[in-house]
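Quick question about two entries, pasted in order.
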Amino acid sequence: MARQSDSPNARSDRLRLSVLPGSAPTAFALQPDAETRHALAEELGLAKLPKLRFEGRLHPEGRGDWRLEGELGATVVQPCAVTLEPVTTRIDVPVIRRYLADWQEPAPGTEIEMPEDDTAEPAPEVVDLAAVMAEALSLAIPDFPRAEGAALGEQAATPPGAAPIAEEETKPFAGLAALRARLEDDD
C-alpha cells in the first residue's frame, strides 16, 4: 500500500488502539503507491492523483481517548467544471480527529443539534489511517474546479419572436423595492 514511517510504532496503516503506548504519541506516515493512488482517484472521480501523503501522530488523551493530528498533502487532477480541461490542484490541509472512549450515541428518533466539535467520534478498536486519509482527501478536493480563464457564459432561451428576459426581471423583490421607493416618494 504505502511507504511507512521508520518509527517502530507505525508499522501499518491500521493501528490497534489497545496495543499503542498510552504515554507517548505514535507517529505514522503513509505515501500510497501508484496502484493505490489510481484506485483512490477512480473512487473519488479524479482524472489523476499523482501525489498523496498523510503523516502525523496519534496522541493518547486521558483514559482511552485519542487525538489524531496529521497533515494531508496531495496533487489532484480533475476536469474543469466549465471546459472539461484538466485542472491541477495542490492540497495541503491539517487533519484532526478525536476518538472518544465514552462516546454516547443519541437514541433513535432523538432530535439533536450539530455539535460544535466535528472532529469527535467514537473510539474504534482499530484506526484505519488509509480510510482517514481518503475521507480527508474527499473533503478537501474542489467541488467545481475551473481552468484559468474559464467562465460560465450567459445563455438565453426564448421562443421565436419573443424578447429575452433580462436577469433583473427574474428578481421579483427588486421590483417590489422600486415600487416601495416610489410610494415613499409620493408620501
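Here is the second entry:
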Amino acid sequence: MAIQVPTELLDGCVLGLLTTKDYYGYTLTQEVQRLIPISESTLYPVLRRLKKNGWLETYDEPFQGRNRRYYKLTTTGRGRLGEIQTEWQGFSTAITTLLGGKINE
C-alpha cells in the first residue's frame, strides 16, 4: 500500500487496539503492521506523543530478565479515540464518494 497514513488516523489505530488489552511496544507494532505497512521507527514516536498528551500510560513488566514497557489506554485516551472515530466517519464517507466519482449536487 503506497498511501501514507495521516498522523491522526495512526493515533486512532493505536488507541483502538489498546481498547481491548494492553500491549508492549513490539507486539503493538506487529498488530498495526499486520494491516498497515509502517515501520517500528514510525510507531515509537507516536507512542511517546500519545503518552505525552495523556492518552496512554505505561508500566513495565519483567520478562526473561528484561523489562517490557506496556501501553495502556487512559480515560482521556478513550475520549480522544471517540473523537477520531467520529471524524473518520465523515472523512471516510467523503473519500469514498470522491473516489467513486460521485458528487451530491
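Reply: The beta strands are 23-24, 56-63, 66-73. The CA atoms of residues 29 and 43 lie 7 Å apart. Hope that helps.
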